[in-house]
Amino acid sequence: MFPIDVSDRKLKKILLNSRGFILVQFYAYWWILCIEFSSIYDKISDEYGNLITYFKNRC
Questions:
Q1: Where are the domains of the chain?
Q2: Is the pLDDT reported for residue 25 higher than 60?
Q3: Are the CB atoms for 17 and 39 separated by under 8 Å?
Q4: What are the residues whose beta carbons fall under 8 Å from the beta carbon of 55, sequence distance 6 or more?
Q5: Which helix (H) or strand (E) holds 33?
Q6: d(CA 42, CA 17)
Q7: Chain centroid, CA 58 distance in Å
Q8: What is the pTM of this model?
Q9: 43 vs 19, which has greater pLDDT?
């Protein structure tokens, strides 16, 4: 592994941007899942109701 100089401004900016991008992607996927669960919530049978309610309450 190469030693990385984190004091370099450009490198620090790249690291921060990539971390932020990953976070934004994670939240986007989470919200898509929430929307999917909300839209199909009424169509699910009672046996899966508790699991879906759990995910819906986590949003």
A1: 29-59
A2: yes
A3: no
A4: 33, 34, 37
A5: helix 9-40
A6: 39
A7: 12
A8: 0.34
A9: 19
